[in-house]
Amino acid sequence: MSNGFLPTTETVHAESAEMVAETVRRAGSQRSAVYPIGGATALAFGAATETPGLGLSLARLNGLADYPARDLTVTVGAGMTLGEFGRLLRKENQRLPVDVPQAAAATIGGAVATNFSGPRRFRFGTIRDYLLGLTAVDGSGKIFSAGGRVVKNAAGYDLARLLVGSLGSLAVVTEVTLMVKPVPEASALLGVALAELRKADSLLASLVESEVEPVAIELAAGALPRQSPLRLGDGTAAGQLWLGFEGSETDVRWLVDKAAACCRQLGAEPRLIDGAAEAGELWQTLADFPAPDGQPTLTVEAAVLPSQTVAAAESLLKLDGGAAILCHAGDGIIVARFACPPDRAAALASDAREAIRLTGGKAAVLSAPAESRLDRSAVWGPATEALGVMERVKRKFDPQGILNPGRFIFATGTP
Amino acid sequence: MARSSATDVIPQLQKLLGREGVLSDPADLVVYDCDGLTIEKRRPEAVVFPTTTEATAEVVRLCNRHEIPLVVRGAGTSLAGGCVPIGGGLVVSLTRMRRILEISLRDRMAVVESGVLNLQLARALAGTGFHFAPDPSSQTACTIGGNVATNAGGPHTLKYGVTVNHVLGIEAVLGDGTIVRLGPVFDRAALDLTGVIVGSEGTLAIVTKVWVRLTRDPQDYRTVRVVFESLDDASAAVSDIIAAGIVPAAMELMDRGILAAVDEAYHFGFPTDAEAIAVIELDGLKAGLDEQLTRVAAICQRHNAREVLQAATADERALLWKCRKMAVGAVGRISPSYIIQDGVVPRTRLPEIIRQITRISAKHGIRIVNVAHAGDGNVHPILLFDERDRDSVRRALAAGKELLEQCIACGGSITAEHGIGIEKIGLMETLFGKENLEVMGRLRDALNPAARLGLGKVLPSPDAPKILETVGTCQALP
After folding, report:
1. Of B67, B259, B331, B393, which has fewest CB within 10 angstroms of its CB?
2. Rounded to 5 degrees, what angle do the CA atoms B235, B241, B245 make?
3. Which chain A residues touch B219 with a CB distance below 8 Å?
4. pLDDT tens digits for B103-145?
5. In what order do the strands lie in the sheet with A33-37?
6. 3-state DSSP assignment of residue A177
7. Span A1-183+383-415: which CATH code?
8. What's phi and psi for A318, nearest 5 deg?
9. CATH top class, domain B335-409
10. pLDDT for A325-376, tens place per residue?
11. Which residues of A touch B212 (CB under 8 A)?
12. Quick check: B413 and A150 CB within 8 A?
């Protein structure tokens, strides 16, 4: 059986951390690969691998272990979906302010492994900033815990942070403790259409000078889908800048007024979205931007210094004017979607990486059509000087190299 | 090659760093005996002052060739013995790497060398509308490198997070002398080594340069002092404020014992009969602050607050913060020696740990006064004793140990922001268990293979002295 991305021969549905450990040990004794799977929403993320192995589903590890809501901390199984998690927190008027694409199906463990984030990253950071502790199983089948359940902890090494973004290549996360936040009273988005993308630069620079502090600074450009709620104006705009605000009713009203005045001063008439349903849909669209839409697409994520965001977006559009681009401009993160036949993906990824390198940044492929079978260098780029020490870490956690072999940056450890 | 003494390589060190970059005269070394934890001392064999990352790497390589352990040091304000060269060897002081290399408001980033003082950066940023958020109480003296090493916090972590949340990248020298640069641009094709090196107390790498995130200054503040009839009431109010979905910038507690000392030192005029005072700060947009303050005041009043007084002027706010941040300094007025402990519990267990502290104080006959970052569940009981009296020292250490064990029993941890250093090594196994410590050890093996950086710190090993049980085993001082 294969899901198109992973060469899995069978899938084990783990019911407990012990069962995860046992499965990993068994695979180790047979020198077989193990592919951890959460909500299966990010299987296209990572290099193509040919090593057959076990799929290890964490989806049934989806229980609530502990939720002392007054402490603003919560411990859940790694297989809980972010949708379910959100509903659980909502009952206490709390939330995890990290935007993970396809939240209805994506799992918490997957969010840790892939380190996806979205528009609110500007104000609220990434999952690493909420991760207090976890339990995981290393490549030898040993269960270990890291961190704790308190919001501030300086004891020992923070191995939980080490696993964030490691794409399941060091250990399989089975349980997670997170810090959560109160749901803000109000939320609104303010959008302006830009005749040319460069205009965004002066708007973004004037934000630094102003007292307006959004929670999200989003710049959408290129060929957005016709029905996308991100589009503004008559469809001729080169870009649209969306500022997201959250906070108390009073704060949001003040911010929106101030930001609107700021836009008008620069000659742009803003559009305000503050109805709960409409704003909710827009936040969702921003968060789900990298998600697949059924078309053959190469999705690249670039990171540059925030001041280089517009230049980087422009250079990607120069490669392909038909690309759809969303920038988390406050963080210098750019997600670009290129309509792309499978046989062109490698070359396009390489061109995009080169364009981003020239603006001082890095790029990685978030997803590509399954048939394109992108290799490690196409997905992750050339090795950096720090790869050597990272490989040493990998060998310490997965000495046989059986966890997600070949998918992340590591050359070593392919059985 | 067998382990050499650092004194054997002085000529090589001088060649690398110049004569002014090496201290080896015993008289010059005295001040490097210890940090803020003054009861454990060990004199380094030499102290070096590299001024570049490359020179730091050369020192590490030289030490590796001669099997000499090294301990990195910033301003020496740490409180858990993190700078004490317990394994002998060299102290690497980064205090001469103190240039602010770049400030970019547009990128919300500053690039600093590790020896830059936290306050130096704060001053450089004053008036720009942005600041570096971590503000430990030692802010006026501590270095950014030290903040990175201990993952320092401070009163405002409640809203703004700890150091790791504000570090975009680092340049560092690993245990084998390799230089790595991580960040400042987000790199998906990498393990988050920055995330683990921050807070590793110089035992994974020597961080020489830091790219820090800048945070917008709040438009305004509302800072109040709330007088409570009991610590119990005060901690319950703090817990209720958080539970109500309010996120103040800071919520600090001081008990009657510390208030007396603070008032004597700084003449604020706290009521002398107050059992506890909470300093609560709300910040953000001016427009919404009064509304928030009304809600906070109402919650305090439900917990029998006697009065809720707002700092009327910027000067009054500054004095109030001075009282809180310099509280520990005032303790010298009431006791010849003290240990400032650092424990953390889930916020809702705060009343319980406060009661335990009172019980432990009575049991060991050690007076304890309290300050706390109450909003984070982070307590700083200050144990008063007399260093000249060995029995008093023994009782103070026993009380400190029991207190931290209680934090663990409450579901907390033995340090929230000071670090493990050498002081708390003896409790690491109680907190994490052997199995989890073994996994932590792998990370050190990968980044600092010979464990020569920070030898004898953070992770227990059979040959590391058990500080909490055996006072003064480090080395008898002349």
Report:
1. B67
2. 145
3. 211
4. 999 999 999 999 999 999 999 999 999 999 999 989 999 999 9
5. A8-13, A53-57, A33-37
6. strand
7. 3.30.465.10
8. -65, -35
9. alpha beta
10. 999 999 999 999 999 999 999 999 999 999 999 999 999 999 999 999 999 9
11. none
12. yes
Which of B349, B439, B440 is the best substitution to test chain A (most A C-beta atoms within 10 A)? B439
- Whole-Å CA distances, A394 to A42, A147, A168, B212: 21, 20, 11, 27
Q: How confident is the model at residue B473 (pLDDT cuts 50, 70, 90)?
A: very low
C-alpha dihedral, B278 to A154 to B366 to B390, nearest 10°: -150
Q: Which CATH number fits domain A297-379: 3.60.60, 3.40.50, 3.30.70, 2.60.40?
A: 3.30.70
Contact list in A for residue B107 (CB cut-off 8 A) is: 305-307, 332
Angle at A103 (CA atoms; ends A312, A45), nearest 5 degrees? 50
Q: Report the alpha-carbon distance of residue A107 to residue A113 in Å, rounded.
A: 10
d(CA B1, CA A37): 49
Give B364's contacts (C-beta < 8 A, 6+ positions apart): B395, B396, B398, B399, B402
Query: DSSP H helical segments within B106-230, as ranges?
Result: 118-125, 144-150, 157-160, 193-197
What b/e readout covers B291-306, taking b as 16+ CB neighbours within 10 angstroms? Answer: ebbeebbebbeebebb
SS3 of B69-119: the string is CEEEECCCCCCCCCCCCCCCCEEEECCCCCCEEEEECCCCEEEEECCCEHH
Chain B residues whose CB is inside 8 A of the A397 CB are 442
Cα-to-chain-centroid distance, residue A122: 13
> Rounded to an integer, what distance in angstroms lies between the CA atom of residue A262 and that of residue A268?
9
DSSP one-letter code for B453: B
Do A389 and B346 make contact, defined as CB atoms within 8 angstroms?
no
Q: Is A314 helix (H, G, I), strand (E, B) or coil?
A: helix
At B222, is the secondary structure helix, strand, or coil? strand
Residue A58 and residue A137: Cα distance in Å, rounded? Answer: 12
CB atoms within 10 A of CB B178: 17
User: Which pLDDT does position B50 carry in this prediction?
Assistant: 98
- Helical ranges in B365-417 per DSSP H: 390-409
Structure tokens at A192: 């302006």
Show me where the domains of chain B are located: 220-329, 335-409
Query: Do A157 and B200 make contact, defined as CB atoms within 8 angstroms?
Result: yes
β-strands A181-182, A143-147: how paired? unpaired
CA–CA min distance B408, chain A (Å)? 10
B454 contacts on A by Cβ (under 8 Å): none
Residue A300: strand pairing partners: A336, A365
CATH of domain A186-287: 3.30.70.3450
For residue B16, the surrounding DSSP H or E stretch is helix B10-17
Of B185, B196, B242, the CB nearest to A304: B185
| AA letter at A182 | P
**B371 vs chain A: nearest CA distance in angstroms?**
16
Residue spans per domain, chain A: 1-183+383-415, 186-287, 297-379
Which residue in A288, A302, A289 sits closest to A332, CA to CA?
Answer: A302
pLDDT surpasses 60 at B43: yes
